[in-house]
């Protein structure tokens, strides 16, 4: 959560200094990184799963080290190839964007984004290994420090060195390289020691490729579904309008960073339990994961969607394009929230060693979503295209969940509706009422206070309506009353 907040806090400064057009190019770096994960072939989640299983099955020290070395060789080879390809293709970028920026500036920026992609790409491998070893705290510390240096350091570069996109991106590359090195060092030190040095053993992958490719297929669909719109719109829209779209996405996309800790905790825990006690034993941890995801996602997403205008005005410091950003922000955040609610059912399938059903569901959603975004954006504008997100993802969620539950638990699991739908309705009703009674002509400070109160109110309603948080509140309340008596 802190990593997301740091990134969000500095983006308005980047936009003010670089402008919407240059920021649109910078934001494409995250899109390139996400799209490149298609070539991951399920390596990171597979390493996560195998390291989590190792906590149950002992005496695998040498195997784990050899597995990491084998995956590491593959990942760094792909990273180098990605960087070389991006640099080689950079000269054609000037013809892709509809912009008045100098072609040399755009070309150099794309080349630097390619170098940044190469040094960032292995991060997912090392993160997956650390999560599998239950080292989330150390991983989070490094990521927070990297986010702080990346964002606050970039502000210092723009202020003290120059306001060029080149120097901005060079700083990003340096921080990303340090982050990758730190994670690699930490993971290798956390592995159990062995008498022999780690070595390449491709034979270790024979029994893992089936599951890895299944995980990879689901990941590819998710990545393309969440990133294809940016590639399409970067061509269809003027770069300035695309920059506004990326500004809205910069807020909405941070929701996924807030949900990552939930998945990072739930996935290895369910994998460990399934390996030790069987599929039925993970029902309670799965339900806990669903409730935690609901508690994290719904209050924030619904607050941003309903108060998108106020948040856009505050976040852009009252810029002229705040209303345009607000019109894009509401559908985007709702679409991301629905994707996040699918994450726990997805890792449920991964934990029990299957991925086919979720892969097909995501594939169906992709086949509908991408054409819908392109069609609506071309004929009716970017805002209309953005509304394809919640509509399509909502349909995938409704149709897929019963099938996932029947496959895993041999039942529809109607508790899911209570754990998700009741909080959804309660939070929406309270926030709409709070929006209706909002005073007009609030100044900057009071508008900020009003939105923060809305977020706090939504969180309290969620905590009171979700079983796991409600039970914690009841225990604390009973303990308080007992101590007073």
Q: Helix proportion of residues, in percent?
A: over 70%
* Total count of helical runs of at least 4 residues: 21
Kindly report the average pLDDT value: 81
- What is the rounded Rg? 23 Å
Structural class, from secondary structure content? mainly alpha
CA-CA gap between termini: 38 Å
Secondary-structure element order, as H and E?
A: HHHHHHHHHHHHHHHHHHHHH
Biggest sheet details = none
Count of domain modules: 2
Q: What overall geometry do the principal axes of the alpha carbons give? A: globular
Q: Unreliable segments (pLDDT under 50, ≥5 consecutive)?
A: none
Q: Strand share of the residues?
A: under 5%
Number of strands: 0
Model description:
There is one protein chain. The chain has 485 residues and is mainly alpha-helical. It folds into 2 domains: 1-207, no CATH class; 237-485, no CATH class. It contains 21 helices and no strands. The chain has helices at 2-36, 43-54, 61-89, 93-96, 103-120, 123-132, 136-161, 165-190, 209-236, 239-252, 254-277, 283-306, 308-315, 322-341, 343-351, 356-380, 382-386, 388-409, 415-436, 444-465, 467-484. The longest helix is centred in the N-terminal third of the chain and has 35 residues, at 2-36.
